[in-house]
Amino acid sequence: QVQLVESGGALVQPGGSLRLSCVASGNIFNINGMGWYRRAPGKQRELVARITSGGTTTYADPVKGRFTISRDNAKNTVYLHMNSLRPEDTAVYYCNADLTRFNGGVYVRNNDYWGQGTQVTVSS
Questions:
Q1: End-to-end C-alpha distance for the chain, whole angstroms
Q2: Residue 23 phi, psi dihedral angles, 5° rounding
Q3: Do residues 21 and 79 make contact, with C-beta atoms less than 8 angstroms apart?
Q4: Which of 80, 100, 113, 120 satisfies CB 3.0 to 4.6 Å to 109 for a cystine?
Q5: What is the rounded CA–CA span in Å between residue 17 and residue 36?
Q6: Is 13 strand, coil or helix?
Q7: Given this model, what pLDDT does residue 104 score?
Q8: Strands 28-39 and 46-51: what pairing?
Q9: pLDDT exceeds 90 at position 103
Q10: Mean pLDDT, rounded, for 104-116
Q11: Three-state secondary-structure class, residue 7
């Protein structure tokens, strides 16, 4: 089965930086888009950034100019470089993948693969 595992979340001071990582593993044929979403307590999950297989990126307005999403296709890994962190960035950050897997001689594409989440806390 396909698994997405995030890492890198931590407690950081305002203005600090973090790099989140997400590794996809399993019977993967191809990963199309990958992205980062976040959910703060009492709020809906929201898009942070996405990146296509070709490297085209999309960012939510609150993180533009501060966060950078990248990927290493050979390692099935997506990163989120976060700079100038603010308290309002505090949330659980989730990795998402739109991918095609190969199983039992069948190719199946699904865009609803999620990691378990990693906690980012920005506080003095």
A1: 40
A2: -110, 125
A3: yes
A4: 100
A5: 16
A6: coil
A7: 87
A8: antiparallel
A9: no
A10: 94
A11: strand
Distance CA 120, CA 37 (A): 12
Return the structure tokens found at 38. 């976040």
Please, what is the Cα angle at 45 between 122 and 53, to 5 degrees? 95
Hey, what are 5's tokens? 């595992």
- Cβ(6)–Cβ(115) under 8 Å? yes
Q: Which two tokens stand for residue 86?
A: 């603010």
Query: In this structure, are strands 11-12 and 118-122 parallel, antiparallel, or unpaired?
Result: parallel
pLDDT per position as a tens digit, 38-60: 999 999 999 999 999 999 999 99
Cα–Cα distance list, 105 to 26, 27, 98 (Å): 15, 11, 19
- Write the DSSP string, 20-82: EEEEEESSEEEEEEEEEEEE-TTS--EEEEEE-TT--EEE-GGGTTTEEEEEEGGGTEEEEEE
Q: How many Cβ atoms are within 10 Å of 100's Cβ, its own excluded?
A: 13
pLDDT for res 42: 92
